[in-house]
Automatic annotation (TrEMBL):
Name of the molecule in the record: Mitochondrial carrier protein
Solcar repeats: 6-94, 102-189, 199-294
Record Pfam families: Mito_carr
Taxonomic placement: Eukaryota, Sar, Alveolata, Ciliophora, Postciliodesmatophora
GO CC field: mitochondrial inner membrane
An annotated GO BP: transmembrane transport
Keyword presence, Cell membrane: no
Family as reported in the entry's similarity comment: Belongs to the mitochondrial carrier (TC 2.A.29) family.
Amino acid sequence: MSQQELPFIISFLGGSISSTTAELVTFPMDMLKTRMQLGGTQGAMKYRGIFHIITHTYQTGGIGAFYRGMIPALVRQFTFSGIRISLYDKVKFLMGDDLASGGFWQRFVFGAGCGGFASFLVTPLDVCKVRVINDAKKEKYSGLIDCLKKTWSKDGFVHGFYKGSSPNIYRSVVVNAAELGTYDNSKALLMKNFSMREDSLWTRFWASVMAGFIAAVASSPIDVVKTRYMNATKEDPNVPKGSEVRYTSPLDCFKKIIKNEGFSALYNGFMFLWMRLGPWCVVMFITWDLYKDAAKKYYLQQKTKEELRK
């Protein structure tokens, strides 16, 4: 039995468990990255650099401040990664893709499609994750449920829960093509050119490092646009006209960032993005493969027992 043949629910749980494990380990980097990406816009503080944001975050809430918004992030990650990874495994199996004979480019396409679909389904959780993280003093939301209720009542389904759905999906398409495609292709290249085994820890480690770096470089511009656009609620009548930067669309957000801050602003928080995606990919992919190894072993044992009973 190949790894791709695992039952859908087992594959879903594998993706969910491995991704939430990675999220727990790297969440502070994600939180700091999100705040850096706002770059002093939308009422958020503008940080001078890594040391400034770390010290300010600690001063405003201690260690707990680094985990602000963790619950919506974990809920989102559990759902999102369970869907994208189980679909990715299933599509690869149906298309007859394996590391020995699969196509190089088709893995990027599989990852992009599965990631984009999963992202569309969980965008409401992404919106609330961004808003809770950027509500550092808990002035707007007490938590995930409160944010969901207020987003629904104030902004509605389309302009609230699906605020920034297009850049979110674009980002997910890019990230998942880079992560999933690069990981499998890197393993295939390491096995072919360096005679490394697929189940070797070093093969999986270096493949996940490469996946994390490519994903960070490719996704940072879209990630910045997504963060700012999602964080922008409807115009506040209590705020003086002209004092807030408003975005009519993700493209408008992209143009205004370039015009007002320059191209480099699209890489605001890149160090935190890389510091998060690098370790995140290592933990997630290695945990994912170990989970599949264990599941495959279990199902082979069960199959052997059934044959012996016959």
